[in-house]
Design a protein that fits this description.
5 helices, mainly alpha, 85% helix, globular
Length: 161
């Protein structure tokens, strides 16, 4: 059961990284060659900028919202907050680092993709540490089949939120 939960976490993080790499490839393909993939670019931009950072923050901070619509709205709100903070930081720190046009397509895209990968790695490490903590907590508890199944259910639910 734990292996299955662990594999689901790995698959989600791998999907997020693949989504970000496709988004980065589409933007760089457009920037350097002029080839525009219009519909895919908007779809991946929406997912990678408005859904992924907020969902990762919800998972990292363990914010549980029961309604699917409210979860989506909260993740969009958190993502917009992160976009504003990133824009502010790029605008002030970009010229210091040597970026002549900090609020242009490539610096913003690279920053967003690196933020998503960074949040994914934090999410992965946090869920991995949680799994290790739950494993050691279950060893200390008295063993009976009903108690063990209860703790496995509790551990699997805590890993998903």
């Amino acid at each position: 059961m734990r292996e299955k939960i662990y594999m689901i976490r790995k698959i989600r993080i791998l999907e997020i990284i693949i989504l970000n790499m496709i988004f980065l490839a589409i933007v760089t393909l457009n920037y350097y060659t002029g080839i525009e993939i219009i519909v895919l670019r908007q779809i991946f931009a929406f997912i990678c900028t408005l859904l992924v950072p907020g969902m990762l923050l919800l998972y990292i901070f363990k914010i549980r919202i029961m309604s699917f619509a409210k979860t989506i709205l909260h993740s969009i709100g958190l993502s917009l907050f992160m976009l504003m903070i990133i824009g502010l930081m790029l605008n002030f720190l970009g010229p210091v680092i040597g970026i002549t046009k900090p609020i242009s397509e490539i610096p913003i895209t690279l920053t967003l993709v690196s933020l998503n990968i960074w949040l994914s790695s934090i999410f992965y490490l946090k869920s991995r540490n949680k799994e290790i903590e739950l494993f050691f907590q279950n060893i200390k508890k008295p063993y009976s089949p009903s108690i063990a199944s209860y703790y496995h259910l509790q551990a699997s639910l805590e890993l998903f939120y």
